[in-house]
Amino acid sequence: MELTIFILRLAVYILAFPMYLLNFLGLWSWICKKWFPYFLVRFSVMYNEQMASKKRELFSNLQEFAGPSGKLSLLEVGCGTGTNFKFYPPGCRVTCIDPNPNFEKFLIKSIAENRHLQFERFVVAAGENMHQVADGSVDVVVCTLVLCSVENQEQILREVCRVLRPVSERVRNLSYMQKLVHTQEYLLSSVCNSTNWK
Ligand SMILES: C[S@@+](CC[C@H](N)C(=O)[O-])C[C@H]1O[C@@H](n2cnc3c(N)ncnc32)[C@H](O)[C@@H]1O
Questions:
Q1: Per the UniProt record, which residue ranges are transmembrane (predicted)?
Q2: What pTM was estimated for this model as a whole?
């Protein structure tokens, strides 16, 4: 038994060695950032098929949060390839934030496929520091499959509150909680539950 465990451990060490080496050389993070978008674009197709009805329901009332102009200003934090775009209402003004610049070319493709949206800009930044987005400048913040893997969830949520358009505190909390509960319930589920990863 001990010999089996030893051999299994050795196999794991050998398999993981290239990753440790690349990490030691400072290349692992670069490789992940480069290739993750290619993985995500494929994964998103399958995921969207499975979650289409839930996403439609989750995003169905977005237009209700539009400001006095009637135009909905939406910020997507950790936008990835723009997989949520097709669920946003027509005319919606979309700003995207993601710390991985390699998503840009995938975003451009998603924008071309979703002509019903008005794309504003892609900001390369982490959600913990979105200083490029002005205080109270967006009606809605969308964040799916992101919070489970970030460094500082509280800081991101503080930033989310900062950039959201100030309406009455009651409405702000309501809309925020509604989105959070829906997101947790429908999208994060157990796959993306931070407690499962620790
Ligand atoms: C699993 S993908 C989800 C992408 C997209 N939201 C979706 O639902 O398909 C996680 C995304 O979060 C981004 N991300 C990672 N850390 C982040 C952070 N600190 N702030 C904002 N986005 C982050 C990643 O670059 C990646 O695009």
A1: 6-32
A2: 0.82
